[in-house]
């Protein structure tokens, strides 16, 4: 039996509120992000388009981008993430992004500006071979208006067996139907995809320096998981919401395996019913889309679920 880790105090970790962080963005940031996740519609990639709008998942980059428009230090940006009471010392190279949920509460202002990220730790779980942490963040403006709600989990290899609770399973599980996808999107990544995406604010050297990836047993520099996530969101928006950002409601998915620049993504998508029909809420004018993203036969995002408003929905 593995020895219990006495350095983890769940009661101090869960509920811990991080200091508020100021974050900023401008139109150029919106354009750069949209291009880096494969969006091609001019409403996301051309600021003079009469329908110009922020790609709905843009706010995912703000935690690491912060309030700077310049290159930043990933190590400096990340070091406070687990410097909280009751948490053991960890090696960030042993941390893997587990899953990500993102809910758009209001359209992101196209003029950009300064906002605040309000974040707290909402769960810590014992997975035996590792620890799972779960945190949530809200993007808020100066008036207190909330634009985005994000939840993210991380798996920390080797930090388990501390006698903590197991992560609860979702009460409702949405799985892809056993039939041909209703839509499929194929995107061939540029060999420089990670170098492009990192300009939005995630300057982790693992996504740029092949030698660092190889030291961790990877083939080389690999793509940011949130870049793959963005490609998936773009595919869903294109095929089920007419590329209208205002129809986007939410998306979630689990990062199943790494992606390398130059590989080809295939996002397979199924409409499984309305939010009301599948039991996720009372909305009859919101469609639930199950999706999975693959490289060949290798799943890279699993358990994907997105919600979009139908064309007839009132906003």
* General form: globular
List the strand order in the largest sheet: 1-3-4-5-2-7-10-9-8-6
Largest sheet: 10 strands, antiparallel
Our Rg estimate from Cα atoms comes to 19 Å
Q: Give the low-confidence spans.
A: none
Percent range of helical residues:
10-25%
By secondary-structure content and strand pairing, the structural class works out as: alpha+beta
End-to-end Cα distance, whole Å, is 55 Å
* Helix/strand order, N-terminal first: HEHHHHEEEEEHHHEEHEE
Strand % is 25-35%
Mean pLDDT: 94
Number of discrete helical segments: 9
Outline the structure in words.
The chain has 315 residues and is an alpha+beta fold. It has helices at 10-13, 27-36, 42-45, 62-65, 74-78, 193-197, 210-215, 225-240, 275-278; strands at residues 21-25, 95-104, 113-126, 130-140, 146-157, 183-188, 248-255, 264-274, 286-295, 298-309. It is globular.
Give a short synopsis of this structure.
The protein is an alpha+beta fold.
Give a topology summary.
Blueprint: H1 10-13, E1 21-25, H2 27-36, H3 42-45, H4 62-65, H5 74-78, E2 95-104, E3 113-126, E4 130-140, E5 146-157, E6 183-188, H6 193-197, H7 210-215, H8 225-240, E7 248-255, E8 264-274, H9 275-278, E9 286-295, E10 298-309
Antiparallel strand pairs: 1-3, 2-5, 2-7, 3-4, 4-5, 6-8, 7-10, 8-9, 9-10
